[in-house]
Amino acid sequence: MSIAVRPYQEGDAHAVAELYNRHRDNPNPVAGGITGDELARELAERGTATFLVAVDDGRVVGTFGLFHHTGRRSARAGELIADMFFVAPAYRNGVLTGRLFTEAVEWMVRTGCLVLRLTVNPANTVAFRLYRRVGCVSVGQTVPGEDGNVELHNYIPLILRSVFADLGDEVKAALGQLTSFGTVTESRDDELRSDVRLVDGVRTVDYRLSVGAFTLTASVDVDRGTVRHAELTGPDGTRRALRLTEPPYRIRLPRGRDPYRFGSNGLTVEVDGDDGTVRVLADDHHGPVFVSTWPSCAADRPAGWREGEPRDLEFTPVDHGVRITERCGDDEVRGTVTLADGVLEQHIAFTRPPGRIFQTVGLRQGTFTRGTEQPCPIGLGLGVRDASEVVAAAQPAAPGTDLVWDGAAWSVRIPVREPVRLVHSTLLERGLAAGPDGQVRLRTEFGRRTAPATPAAAPVPPVAGPRRIQLDAAAGGVTAWTEGTTKVLRSPFPRTRAFGHNPRWSAGMWVTTERSRYDRAAGLGWGVRPLASWEEKHPLGLYGPAERLGLELTAPEDTAVPVRADVQAPEAEQDVVLWLTPHTPRHTTVVLDCAGSRRELDSRGFRQVWAAAAAVRLTDGTWLHCRPAPGAAPGAEVVLRPTDAGLLVGCVSPAGGEHAWHLSVAGGAAP
After folding, report:
1. Which of 432, 655, 416 is nearest to 524 (CA)?
2. What pTM does this model have?
3. Which pLDDT does position 431 carry in this prediction?
């Protein structure tokens, strides 16, 4: 029986959920899988434009969804976000993948949505190359952020609609015979670089499309979502400029308004002037301790926790805060944000329900407690499963309980008096249920605290030498480190391989500059090095002139003395990271110093954790210890991310200070 591609039907939810649950490489993984009811609710909550399913002999074997928002992000006017694009492994070598993509884009053109956005793990080279082959371009961040993906845009539907009215019959006939964008657009390389060109101060991308015997070239203004100019070249080489049809929408651009600020008692509230996002900053904490999106007057376009649309907001001062008002025709959302005595109050009223908001607790180290349950360490996958890929699978919080996060210097408490779902241990979805007076009342409490001193670790014997460390400029880092017979690092050198979401892993220790660990749009990246070359300064020192990055190691012969790693990054703007891939088994044990406590964790139990210092059990049973060196910049932390390839460790420090780390290897029991 031939494979049919058709729109989603009400009875498909359980079959789609089963398809995803059967395959670990599904695009929206949730630990333990999802139910059909959760899948159906997710499609409803995303404002699904269309959801295509591929069926073979009654079995669902592929899906492709187009959404107005996903929880993480919200599409602009004229855009749709592609997600849940999945084809069962047995069908990936045929035409089904291209067929799903093409039918989804054809649906977009028919309905007037002209720009396709999607995310892809760049380490998945097959998928990344496929998207590049069909005309997807990079217009934003070129390397993966914390979520592990890069975002690509496809403007071919916009171009074709903009010029269609001025195309001759022969060109239109050729367009009607297209079966795949892969036969239209010239191939783009698979490097992680921006496709944007700055022309007269405008960010543009260029396309060259082959339509039968004709060639269509076009330049797109990526910020305004319009075609700037287009030209058609005929078989005989003659060229003519094409008249352009404006898209049936206008994109609202950010105004760059300064945030509205107020605060007291060591806390500062910033309300974003473009989209109303509320951030609470606290003394002695690096980054915000709390972030909340603001409800949108356009109920079908709620802000995501990573991104929201600019809106026309009015700000009016009130006691201890600000009133925010947004009007969309006859609809209105108005509310106040106030801070007094360590309590953030968000009171919201509306003419029609504005959808959901997301709140993020910014404490990276410490514990999280739900009601009367035992505290668990803060970290992705700890205590609460990570449902960020399918928000409908989030866990409801019990009404009448408190959610409490205790960090090193601050605590955050949220009384559950209205619908709350835990997307993961520091990300909440808040339902906006109005009370008898027609207002939603959200309360968040902040308190100072002093964490106890981390207990001193018992002395552990160093590993007997000799100590050998090998740096290589071609790899851009350390390719080998041994302490006696102990292999400390894992490296693929002289090859380059994928590691986690990094498609260019070549060394066991290397340096990058990254977006800030608390950057809303992306978070901390995965250590993807630029392609620029490095130079050897001396046997234990490397320098990257293109980025003005340097790595210097001090490695005494005595293995009882730690190796000191100093990073020079004078032009860094946000975070500087010393990355390590320790020589561990696929699953290992880590010991973390976090907010005054020491905890031992199995790497299978979390997706990401932060610590003040960490020890990692190596393959031979010894321990690699990572901690800031004396005098290192405040805000230095260690992040650990288990992957299928092994454990990734990032030693993270903010720009502007001293980036210095002590690394040592010791035997014995867990520290």
Report:
1. 655
2. 0.94
3. 87
